[in-house]
Amino acid sequence: MATTNAYRRIYTQLEAITKATVTLKASGVSNDELATVAGRAAQVVKIKGDLITLQVFAGTEGIPTDAEVIFQGEPPTLNVSDELAGRFFNAYGEPIDDGPAVEGERRQIGGPSVNPYKREQPSQLIPTGIAGIDLNNTLVSGQKIPFFADPDQPYNQVMAQVALRADVDKIILGGMGLSNDDYLYFRQAFENAGALNRIVSFVNTTDEPPVERLLVPDMALTAAEYFAVDKNEKVLVLLTDMTLYADALSIVSNRMDQIPSKDSMPGSLYSDLAKIYEKAVQLPSGGSITIIAVTTLNDGDITHAIPDNTGYITEGQLFLRTDTDTGKVIVDPFRSLSRLKQLVINKQTREDHSQVMNTAVRLYADASNAKTKLENGFDLSDYDLRCLDYAKEYSNRLLAIDVNISITEMLDTAWELFSKYFTKAETGLRDSLIEKYWKDNN
Questions:
Q1: pLDDT at 1 > cutoff 60
Q2: Is the pLDDT reported for residue 111 higher than 70?
């Protein structure tokens, strides 16, 4: 049975109910349209003739077959304006910081990414103060890149550090499955740093339905597009944790009896992730959207469907691990990669950047080989011993995520370590650079 009320269509007869969805006969309904089912938020996920399937975010337990279904007449939207800055919202774009509702232009979330014809090649350096990123895996505006990390790594703290250090106009945080402690950590970190005026946060906590996480990236990116496209600003989008986003996709897919693909993920996982990451863009006007996400790993398994698909879409990855020598969390130089760093190093950084970066990592690799020899009972040469000492200091002073210095200071520190532990010949650096930058320790 259907009635109308103030242009909203109301139905009271369900054809089928699963754990996450309800199905009913309705007309004039559009895909992704919002609705309420027995007062619970829901969204259209499938249309087949006049049969409409709605995904109920909080689950369907206790919903009767005569439950009232009210269609809202539009998909999820966000009011965009400069009033977004400094605010915290839930997955529906509703304030959770006791502030007023945002007045502004109402925009549909989840729209298409920017036309490739309107894009420019990323070319602007984004410094973060973290040497494991800026020195070895330099970020570029318009790039999309994830952190790969085990669940016990402090990736949320790293994201907060990046947010507070990055030289951008706006930071958009999309938090999915955050604990209340993590949510409060982000909020207090931003407030204590006096940076709230340039940060917009959309948060789904562990207390809220997991399926609501599916709205968070689109909310965050709709806000990002407003500041990047309308205001020509450099915007950094932080998404944590995309593994929980993919798990929410899997929940919906499985409860709709879709045939799962690898690792119980939906067959659409690649396109679901790509529609988010491909929002990263450098615009001719100077505005840009750079996306840094977190993908948590299961026992370090990068072959799982989520990191595997992510790696095909993004332009590299930043791998977090705990260094056994120093006990600090570092950005692993062997498993991390920024595919766009060559667009800015030596161009927007000092002339010695690429040589110093490559030499530092090569010597760190020599230390890894020396450690393997030591573990297998082989005698170590004087060079091996110096490499091991160098690796500890390199890890402590340049790879650790708690380091916060400029790129010039990173390069100077690397030169200091080279001259402390090696001869000029052992570094293999160009003579012209050695003559200019070598720091004699005598």
A1: no
A2: yes
The rounded mean pLDDT for the chain is: 90
Average pLDDT value for residue range 254-260: 72
Residue 184, token pair as written in the block: 């409060």
- Which pLDDT score, from 0 to 100, does residue 12 have? 87
pLDDT in tens, 217-249: 999 999 999 999 999 999 999 999 899 999 988
Residue 3: the pLDDT is: 54
* DSSP structure string for 361-430: HHHHHHHHHHHHHHHTTPPPPHHHHHHHHHHHHHIIIIIBTT----HHHHHHHHHHHHHHHS-HHHHT--
d(CA 63, CA 211): 17
Contact 163, 130 (CB under 8 A): no
Picking from 297, 309, 189, the residue whose alpha carbon sits closest to that of residue 241 is: 297
Domains of the chain, by residue range, sit at 2-71, 77-341, 353-437
User: What pairs with residue 71 in β-bridges?
Assistant: 9, 35
> What number of H helices and E strands is found in the chain?
12, 22
Tell me the residue type at 95.
P
SS3 234: strand
Q: Is the peptide bond before 325 cis (omega within 30 degrees of 0)?
A: no
Q: Read off the pLDDT of residues 122-141 as tens digits, 9 standing for 90 and up.
A: 888 999 989 889 999 999 99
Euclidean distance between CA atoms 119 and 233, whole angstroms: 15
User: For the structural domain made of 77-341, what CATH number should be given?
Assistant: 3.40.50.12240
The one-letter code for the residue type at 289 is I
Q: Is the dihedral of CA 354, 357, 359, 362 positive or negative?
A: negative
Domain 2-71 in CATH 3.40.50.720: no
